[in-house]
Amino acid sequence: MPPCKHPRVQIVAREEDSEFVECKECGEVFESSEFKDMIIEDTKLPKES
């Protein structure tokens, strides 16, 4: 099974400087900055040799 790309998330908690989101597809909970980093990694173009 391919890893979930977390297409739909919802905010589940907020602390002072952190916001936590849950993936509606797989149920994984993570810090929202990690989610933004995942999107950046997915959109990077492969390096040319």
Nearest-angstrom radius of gyration?
A: 13 Å
Give the strand tally: 3
Tell me the number of helical segments per DSSP (H or I, 4 or more residues long). 1
**In angstroms, what separates the terminal alpha carbons?**
30 Å
The dominant shape is flat
Mean pLDDT: 79
How would you explain this protein's 3D organization?
- With 49 residues, the protein is of the alpha+beta class.
- The protein has one domain.
- It contains one helix and three strands, in the order βββα.
- It has one helix at residues 32-43; strands at 9-14, 19-23, 29-31.
- It has a three-stranded antiparallel beta sheet with strand order 1-2-3.
- The radius of gyration is 13 Å and the shape is flat.
- The termini are far apart.
- The model has no long low-confidence stretch (mean pLDDT 79).
